Amino acid sequence: MMQRTFFQRDPVTCARELVGCILEWKGCSGVIVETEAYSATNDEACHTWSRPSAREFVFRNDAGAAYVYLNYGMYWMLNVLIKGGAEDGFVLFKALEPRRGIDRMRERRLAARRTATGGIRDAALCSGPGKLAQALAVTGEDHGRDFCGTRGIAIRPGAGGVDVVSVYASEFRRQPNCRGALCSLKIRTFQCR
After folding, report:
1. Who contacts 8 (Cβ-Cβ below 8 Å, separation ≥6)?
2. How confident is the model over 74-118, as pLDDT tens digits?
3. Whether the Cβ atoms of residue 2 and residue 82 lie closer than 8 Å to each other
4. pTM
C-alpha cells in the first residue's frame, strides 16, 4: 500500500507516478491508466476555486483522503487529496484497466445504464471517470475515506507486467478571458500499449 508520504508531494508528480499503480476498491482492482492533476491554488478548474467546502476538505483532511463529488448531478468522481508538498491539490482517477472483480464491475455498470442491451467489454468498464466510479460502486458515502488506512481501499505500486510506453502531459488555459500566468493546469497521463 502506498504510504501517506507518497501523497505529500505536488499533484503533477503524483498524477504521473500513479499511472501504472493498482487501485483497489471494495473487492475490485485495476491498473490506473489515466489521471488528471488539479492545483488547489490558482486553478479555476479545481473545486477549491469556487467551493468553500473543497477548501475546507483540503484544510481538515490528511494527504491520501478520497475526495468524491457528484459531477453534473449524474456521475460520482473519485479523486485523491495531495497535500504537504510544493502545492496542494487533487488527482482525479480517469481510467482503469480492470484486473480483479471484473464480473462485479460489469454488473454495476449494467445496473447503472438501466437500458442494458448487451455486455460491456472489459476495456470499456472503467474507460472514463464516471464509468470508473460506477464500476467500483463509488458514492458520496466514500467521501473522506483514507487510501492509507481504510480496509478494502488502497493504491499499490504496479505489480510488474505493466508496460508504460508513454506518459503524456499537457497544460492548457480553460478561461480565455483569465488574466495571469496560469489559469488552469490539467495534466493527463495515460498508459499506452
Report:
1. 63, 82, 83, 84, 85
2. 999 999 999 998 899 999 999 999 999 999 999 999 887 765 556
3. no
4. 0.84
Q: For residues 164 and 19, is the Cβ–Cβ distance under 8 A?
A: yes
The radius of gyration of the chain from alpha carbons, rounded to an integer in Å, stands at 16
Closest CA to 188 of 11, 29, 40, 69: 11
What's the rounded Cα separation, in Å, for the pair 107 and 125? Answer: 10
Torsion 6-64-43-21 (CA) sign = positive
Decide if 124 contacts 49 (C-beta within 8 A). no
CB 20 within 8 A of CB 192: no
Whether 66 contacts 77, CB under 8 Å: no
Domains of the chain: residue spans and CATH: 4-190 (3.10.300.10)
